[in-house]
Amino acid sequence: MLTGIIIGLVLGAVLALTIYILIHKARLKGQKESILLEAEKEGEAIKKEKILQAKEKFLQLKSEHDSYVGKKNNQIRETENRLAQKENALKEQSAELNKHLADAENAKKSLNAQRESYEHKVEEYNRLTAQVNRQLETVAGMTSEEAKTVLMENMKAEARTAAQAYINDTMDEARLNAAKEAKRIVINTIQRTATETVIENAVTTFPIDSDEVKGRIIGREGRNIRALEAATGVEIVVDDTPDAILLSAFDPVRREVARLALHQLVVDGRIHPARIEEVVAKVKKQLDEEILETGKRTCIDLGIHGMNIELVKLIGRMKYRSSYGQNLLQHSREVANICSIMASELGLNPKIAKRAGLLHDIGKVSEDDPELPHALLGAKLAEQYKERPEICNAIGSHHDEMEMTSVISPLVLVGDAISGARPGARREVIESYVKRLRDMENLAAAYSGVTKAYAIQAGRELRVIVGADQITDEQSATLSTEIAQKIQDEMTYPGQVKVTVIRETRAVAFAK
């Protein structure tokens, strides 16, 4: 009984479990079908949406493509229109050119016809002329060449006789008046423009108060002297001469710069290389102003106006330049006055003559074109600064290096000769000495990397200052040898020349 109950319970449980499982499977199957159905619907919606987006994108791309194609078609049509217009223009030009060619061909034919007609007339004229000449030869009893020769000889004889008579009369009159008049003009000119003879030296003496000042000028181990020599190009001679230092240089401008710089340094009391360079630069600027003022004052004294400022500066520089030992400014003033007086005596324009006389030697103080003779260089400068053609010609021809085309030119030549030829006016030796030293400096300055070159000790030493950023120490040694060799090959000089190349490196900084 109990066993039956247990079996029944077990069978009931099994049956209940089986029924539960079947119900659960049916429920899961319904949920699965519902999910699949929902997924299919959602997939169908997404598919339709993507198809719609693709259609919209396609329509957009198609619209852009149609727009791009339309623009390109418009550009092609415009290009075709322009090409058509150019083709039409070329056709018109071609037609016009063909018309011109046809006209030119017709003109050529017309010219050929005229030339043939002209040649025919020339032949007819020559035939008639030959016929007339034969008739004349028959009548005269001589050929045309013989008649021409006789006629020319007769005319030559008559012309020679008349010319000789005129020359004799002119020469007689010139002999009577020329010598007397020339002497009178020259004597009056010399009397009215007589001046002292100025002889420039190559040494300037700078007075000092004591040996203490001399020691400060020399500096520690001579560094102040070296700095001053490098800045001015002047040799500073400090010897046993009491209360004096010698400044030696062939260039008066350099000596004046060194003298004024030393004076300011001694008065100020601060003497060191940096201060020396500062004072030298300041003095050079002051000297440039003084040169300009000297040129202006000279022009005012001589009554010359309207001159270019650059020419005025060159006139001022003449004060510090000598010509064969004669101060160039004094010489030019003399020549200006001489030319003015002679022009007045001869009935010419004295102002133009005076202006030409004052400017005749400006080529000697110019730093441009050193290869040109100073007369031609002066004429070039005067022309550059808008001086009158007759003045330019007078400057260029006062040493017969240019053909004289103005009546003022002989006056400048004569005035220059009068001023330079009077006793004591000039010394040839100093001029050749100065030229040799200038040539030596120019020779060294022509090398690349050279910033300054100074000839000192009367030309026995050449100091060459080079840029530290352009020349190395090894190149400095090579450069000194090259310059020495070139001087030896190209120049004539007494004794020997010491070439010193100075290369200095500086580091500069500013504290602010």
Kindly estimate the percentage of residues that lie in beta strands according to DSSP. Answer: 5-15%
SSE succession: HHEHHEEHHHEEHHHHHHEEHE
What would the average pLDDT be, to the nearest integer? 79
How many independent structural domains? 4
Q: How far is it from the N-terminal to the C-terminal residue, by CA?
A: 124 Å
Give a count of the beta strands, DSSP E runs of length 2 or more: 8
Which CATH class of the largest domain is shown?
A: Mainly Alpha
Structural class: mainly alpha
Percentage of residues assigned to helices: over 70%
Which strands sit side by side, in order, in the main sheet?
A: 1-3-2
Major β-sheet annotation = 3 strands, antiparallel
Give the helix tally: 14
List the uncertain runs: 195-200, 423-428
CATH level 4 superfamily of the largest domain: Hypothetical protein af1432
CA radius of gyration is 53 Å
Global morphology: flat
In the CATH hierarchy, what is the architecture of the largest domain at level 2? Orthogonal Bundle
If you consult CATH, what is the topology of the largest domain? Hypothetical protein af1432
Describe this structure in words.
This protein has 512 residues and is mainly alpha-helical. It folds into 4 domains: 14-117; 193-280, Ribosomal Protein S8, Chain: A, domain 1, CATH 3.30.1370.10; 303-426, Orthogonal Bundle (Hypothetical protein af1432); 438-512, Cation efflux protein, cytoplasmic domain (Alpha-Beta Plaits, 2-Layer Sandwich). 70% of the residues lie in helices and 7% in strands. It has helices at residues 2-140, 144-192, 211-218, 223-232, 252-268, 273-302, 309-317, 328-345, 350-359, 374-384, 389-396, 408-421, 428-445, 473-490; strands at 203-207, 235-237, 244-248, 322-323, 326-327, 450-456, 461-466, 498-503. The strands form 3 sheets. A 3-stranded antiparallel beta sheet has the order 1-3-2. Strands 6-7-8 form a 3-stranded mixed beta sheet, with helices on one face. Strands 4-5 form a two-stranded antiparallel sheet. Strand 2 and strand 3 form a beta hairpin.
